[in-house]
Design goal:
Number of domains: 3
CATH architecture of the largest domain: Alpha-Beta Complex
Number of helices: 20
Mean pLDDT: 94
Radius of gyration: 26 Å
Shape: globular
């Protein structure tokens, strides 16, 4: 047997997840996978992300001999569609492909090469993206936008994730409604959790886009997603993600100058109005020239760049303001784990002993139906005491996720009571970290737990608290909650109260 064949025999099992809105390229992609050389996928999951409609027909997919399943994600966007896919997948690795990419015949073999031998600390393998452009002319604005994918660090047009890392990170953040930033957000979160991301050698082709006259204006909706990125990852997120500085500052200045020119003209201040108009014209001209120069410079393209360069700045600013408003109004609910979400088993190390608490699934479903992110904040001193290993803790986490997930953030404190760490409840660090991880103001977070330490951690962090007493909750802890928090009789009631508080 050759060395390469031996590598393929040892390749880890993988599934392929393809979100789609029914674009024609899907059939071509499936044909390519069906005729690929190398270890076949355990399963190909096509996620139908078309909005629900009484007249919507099932996807017409050819019978290519693939182990194919079609699932529905309800038209909630690519992040939600990918979550539906990877959660249904039963393999160590999940390879995400966009429905408009083209894979080479040797793609399965190349993927196997990329995944084989990766360390246990590697969360993902990202492919290299090739965008074929005409060699007889300069690329259009739409084509240059597609070409930018070749410079993206972590693009899910072709990216394989270890399922364990997806569980730990809570998958894709469904607050990103478009195919924009949701991949960079996930990568930043898994790297922050200590995972590495590997650059693979496989190459996937992404045909260039071709939009209408105002396609570049429509793309400005992504500025709303940038607001969420900043809230979750801080002001330096662009640098961490390998992005340039962006033009929002100049867009804001151009927009302000344009509005100022109109206001000053209405106030009959012609000189000041002329100065403001000059600033607007100069910035708009600079923007237009920067977009025209690298393009084909045809009359249509020049006209398109000139018109959209005047429209883009105020539209970009409007979307950013809308995004900032949504971020400010964001909310989250954080749960204690033992005796809140699952029955308390001292130093739980066996995933088979995980038993959800009564009402836990209903409470979580209620919150998710309202689009509220949920997370877990849990003391796990059994790690420090040597009663459970970090791997056993991860195995229990995976089981909780299978039964009650997904959770958008997991925060565990593995320290003992005497170690003086800032994260062990009743100290607030886990609550603060969870809020930061979700990009939510901690004052709009609600912590649900069963003992006084959960209430104290929430109050100290600045969050709201709800106590759901159990048989081991002390009377003094219930009295503390009545003074500083809210006492609920069960988890579904706590969830309804949380929706009113957050």
């Amino acid at each position: 047997m050759s060395g390469r064949d031996d590598t393929l025999d040892r390749a880890p099992a993988y599934s392929v997840v393809i979100p789609t809105t029914g674009r024609g390229g899907l059939t071509t992609l499936l044909r390519g996978l069906a005729h690929g050389e190398g270890p076949p996928p355990r399963e190909v999951l096509v996620i139908d992300d078309r909005p629900p409609s009484p007249t919507r027909k099932p996807l017409a997919l050819p019978d290519l001999g693939l182990p194919l399943r079609v699932l529905d994600s309800g038209g909630r966007g690519p992040a939600a569609a990918r979550n539906v896919g990877w959660r249904a997948a039963d393999s160590e690795w999940v390879a995400f492909l966009d429905d408009d990419v083209l894979t080479a015949r040797e793609w399965p073999a190349r993927l196997a090469d990329d995944l084989t031998g990766l360390g246990d600390d590697v969360a993902a393998s990202v492919a290299r993206i090739d965008v074929p452009l005409p060699d007889t002319r300069r690329p259009t604005d739409d084509e240059r936008d597609t070409l930018a994918l070749t410079r993206s660090r972590w693009i899910t047009a072709d990216m394989a994730y270890r399922r364990e890392a997806l569980v730990e990170a809570g998958g894709f953040d469904e607050r990103f409604p478009r195919a924009y930033r949701e991949d960079a957000d996930l990568a930043l979160r898994v790297r922050r959790a200590g995972w590495r991301i590997s650059e693979g050698d496989r190459v996937t082709t992404h045909p260039p886009k071709s939009g209408g006259f105002f396609a570049s204006v429509r793309r400005q909706r992504g500025n709303a997603d940038n607001a969420l990125m900043r809230a979750k990852h801080g002001g330096h997120w662009r640098h961490e993600a390998g992005e340039g500085p962006g033009r929002l500052g100049r867009h804001a200045l151009a927009s302000a100058a344009g509005v100022g020119a109109l206001a000053l003209a209405a106030a009959r201040a012609p000189r000041a109005a002329a100065l403001a108009a000059g600033v607007w014209a100069g910035l708009t001209a600079e923007f237009a020239v920067s977009r025209i120069a690298p393009g084909p410079r045809t009359p249509r393209e020049v006209a398109r760049m000139a018109v959209t360069s005047a429209v883009i700045p105020p539209v970009a600013c409007a979307h950013r303001l809308a995004g900032e408003w949504r971020v400010r109004r964001g909310r989250a609910v954080l749960f204690d784990r033992d005796d809140t979400l699952i029955e308390d088993v001292p130093y739980l190390a066996d995933p088979e002993k995980v038993r959800p608490m009564a009402g836990a699934a209903d409470a979580l479903a209620l919150l998710r139906a309202e689009g509220v992110p949920v997370g877990v904040v849990s003391n796990q001193s059994g790690v420090a005491r040597g009663h459970i290993t970090a791997e056993q803790l991860r195995a229990v986490t995976r089981r909780v996720d299978e039964l009650l997930g997904p959770f958008q953030t997991w925060q565990h404190c593995p320290h003992g009571p005497d170690e003086g760490c800032p994260c062990r409840k009743p100290r607030p660090a886990m609550v603060l970290r969870a809020a930061a991880d979700l990009g939510v103001d901690v004052r709009r977070c609600v912590v649900v737990g069963d003992i006084g330490a959960d209430v104290e951690a929430a109050v100290t962090a600045g969050a709201r608290a709800i106590l759901v007493p159990t048989g081991r909750t002390l009377p003094d802890e219930i009295e503390l909650a009545r003074r500083h928090a809210i006492v609920a009789p069960d988890l579904p009631t706590a969830a309804r109260i949380a929706l009113e508080l957050a």
